[in-house]
Predict the structure.
Amino acid sequence: MRAIRLHRPGGPEVLVEEDLPTPEPAAGEVRVRAEAIGAGRPDVLVRKGTYKWMPPLPAIPGAELVGIVEALGAGADAALLGRRVLVSARELPTRGGCYATHICVPAAAPYLLPDGIDPVDAISLPNFQLAEALLGANAGQAVQSLLVLGAAGGVASALTQLACARGIRVLGTASTPEKAAFARANGVSDLLPRDAAALPDAVMAATAGRGVDLAFDHLGADWLIACLRSLAPLGMAVSYNVVQGPPSRDVFALMRELLGRSLALRTFSMHTFDEQPALRRALMDTAIGRMAAGEVKAPPACRMPLSDARAAHELLDAGSSIGKIVLLP
């Protein structure tokens, strides 16, 4: 089989295409032949060697793969043979392994996909799973509006679709005119300045001084401060990444400064569900059902050959792509 591996952390240049033996499924496993492979931010962290759940080196990165079950290990359900499935590294003992033409996984790990979902579209399902979990983080609070940073991103665009389906107004930011156009077409009603200092005033102006009920931040730094300042009374900011690092300001001091609004801050990771497989899989089943029913749509994909994994990571590092990057074996 062909696979992309790294033997040491570093830039895109450490990703090497290799010919490896095609794995044989052990008892209780299935082998999946890849049709489409996702490339995303966790893969960059693996490549850099900074992922908290780092697989041992040499490692094959990759957190999601769609393909056909082509071989069964002893004891695996014969009904799986020939079925199209989604493999998510969230279901695997090691976080990675999907940058390959073939992968062996526990037979219980893959998600069966309806025939109506295109393999490339299915690569975005883990983003919708994450978005379902993020929107559930408000603990039942009524939500009129929310703010999502980087609204053209994979998770952000999934959040936007799910929020719009629930009648929630979505405000967002975008870094380029092309990304702004995509965000608007995806359901963002208000595109706000991509300036952390100016963002709270812009949110207040757009919401008649009320603010938003939820703000989703993956950037950190000054952007997390801006999100907190953009909240309505009893609002909550959700930090699900810190791409730009933690804020330099004392966040608790700011929340005391804004005490009259009774604000909340939640950090969030899908790893919260590592020991809750039933809930984790239910979130994915919901996402699959929504896509099959046409309630949500995968964003346009940037399709690249698996052999161009380095170029895909250059795009990820630059943050210049719109939608999902999909590697084709």
